[in-house]
Amino acid sequence: MGKNYVDIENDQGDALRYRKHVNGRGLVAHGAKVHATARVETGAYVEPGAHVGPGAHIGTGAWVEADAVIGPEADIQAHAHIGPGAAVGAKAKIGVRTHVGDHAIVQAGSLIGDDVTIHEGERVATDRRGLWLAA
């Protein structure tokens, strides 16, 4: 049986240890909290201090940065980027290649499409069809 972790060097030359999440085999950094029922797909990264709630999905190649919070049953699609300190509410969906900026907030149940940029500190809410509301 192969090892269940990998060490990766960051930009400052420090080695960070990531474990392979049981549900999906994506990489979860030491210090991140990912619920056992969440799915972190292969090629996805969850950085130190991030929290991923029950039933959440982190797609292939997605990146959840330090101290970000992903709510229960949220769906982060492939190659999306959740910035440091950002929050994605329960049952929200973040589209493919979408970027949620540092400390931005996506309200629960929001539907954010593909290739969207949510700017640093922005607060976003949508209805079930994905139409943006005043947040």
UniProtKB/TrEMBL annotation:
<keyword id="KW-0441">Lipid A biosynthesis</keyword>
<dbReference type="InterPro" id="IPR011004">
    <property type="entry name" value="Trimer_LpxA-like_sf"/>
</dbReference>
<protein>
    <submittedName>
        <fullName>Transferase</fullName>
    </submittedName>
</protein>
<feature type="domain" description="Mannose-1-phosphate guanyltransferase C-terminal">
    <location>
        <begin position="33"/>
        <end position="122"/>
    </location>
</feature>
<keyword id="KW-0808">Transferase</keyword>
<dbReference type="GO" id="GO:0009245">
    <property type="term" value="P:lipid A biosynthetic process"/>
</dbReference>
<keyword id="KW-0444">Lipid biosynthesis</keyword>
<keyword id="KW-0443">Lipid metabolism</keyword>
<keyword id="KW-0012">Acyltransferase</keyword>
<dbReference type="Pfam" id="PF25087">
    <property type="entry name" value="GMPPB_C"/>
</dbReference>
<dbReference type="InterPro" id="IPR007691">
    <property type="entry name" value="LpxD"/>
</dbReference>
<dbReference type="GO" id="GO:0016410">
    <property type="term" value="F:N-acyltransferase activity"/>
</dbReference>
<dbReference type="GO" id="GO:0016020">
    <property type="term" value="C:membrane"/>
</dbReference>
<dbReference type="InterPro" id="IPR056729">
    <property type="entry name" value="GMPPB_C"/>
</dbReference>
